[in-house]
Write the structure tokens for this entry.
Amino acid sequence: MTAVQRVAIAGAGFAGLGAAILLAEGGVEVEVYESKPELSAIGSGITLQGNLLRILDQLGVWQEAKAKSYGFDMLALRTPGPVANVIAEIPDQRMGGPEFPATAGMYRPDLAKILLDRAESLGARVHFGTSVTGVSTDATGVDITLSTGETTRVDLLIGADGLHSAVRSLIGIEITPRTTGMGIWRAFVPRPESVKYTELYYGGPCYIAGYCPTGEDTMYAYLVEKAQDRSGVSDEDAVRIMGELSMAYHGPWDDFRENLSTSSRVNYTWFTEHVVDAPWNRGRAVVIGDAAHSAPPTLAQGAAQALEDAVVLAELLLASDEVDQPMWDAFHERRVARAREVVAASVQLGDWLIEGNRDAPIPALMGRIAALVSNRP
Ligand SMILES: Cc1cc2nc3c(=O)[nH]c(=O)nc-3n(C[C@H](O)[C@H](O)[C@H](O)COP(=O)(O)OP(=O)(O)OC[C@H]3O[C@@H](n4cnc5c(N)ncnc54)[C@H](O)[C@@H]3O)c2cc1C
């Protein structure tokens, strides 16, 4: 018999739905509680690295995701300024194995919908508009309280409720994600024919200007600046500010600028970092994904690391007879150092850009992380 028969998951993001799919497929009764009233159909693009694509395959959704994404094996560097010279075209390593592209760009809500449909088709019950508000764990199970006022008892609670995780605080893990000093503007825009892979511009008024194709007709563009208080900026002002910041960048940027409008879903977010020290569990409640660690998306590994947590946890729960210390030790052994290394490298990359360090060994750092995440966790 598996270690758990009934599991509750807080959060229907990558980590929560990844765990829900694998546990439901393994015959576990799964209840997912998601605080939002529904999956948002509005969002931006996401860069999916090969180690994440490999997990989508394991979750049984790769073919569907492939059809709705844009895969590529190259990264280009360009210069700011009117000519936008391509200074390097770097073949990207296929970190998920030869059968997956090195990277794929995708519209986030499309991926969220694919994961949700898969989880529900396997029998996981997803309760929208319901938060986990109370947790009491003992030797044999967890009593959880929901925002509906209901209580329920399960064998295990997975806190996959993101950066500001309520489960994390409810089980007494005190940590506040640190802002790293960078903020990002993102916009969803039409893809010009010439954009076939991610291109990055270092320098100019922003630390990074970049874009990533997400489909035949779509892509997302981003500008990373010094973190500023942009709260209260209207949609019209967001379009104006992003347009102004982008004036230093040309090539395809000329095209995006022309197409930027309030329907480009321009949004602004700060980068954060944190890693919860082991253990990530308190009794039979555990945090995974952004609840356990966050990183600036300089290596685009956040969702991949969240899904890796889900895969390793589900695998151990399905293979073990008991939720016991050896199981938790195995989980932490496989996840904590790896996540910490990815977070540290992502932060380092951002810090080098903030310092304006032009001699930083960026290729060596990227190569080290690529080698690390190419191995299964
Ligand atoms: C600007 C930016 C760009 C990024 N770009 C990339 C990228 O290109 N590639 C990449 O791999 N990663 C990227 N990341 C990181 C990535 O978005 C996260 O690492 C990933 O979303 C983490 O998934 P998660 O499931 O742990 O958390 P989330 O995706 O945050 O999901 C948590 C869910 O829990 C719900 N929730 C919150 N509180 C409760 C509660 N109390 N009860 C129930 N539900 C609750 C939330 O509504 C949410 O749906 C980026 C991050 C940022 C900030």
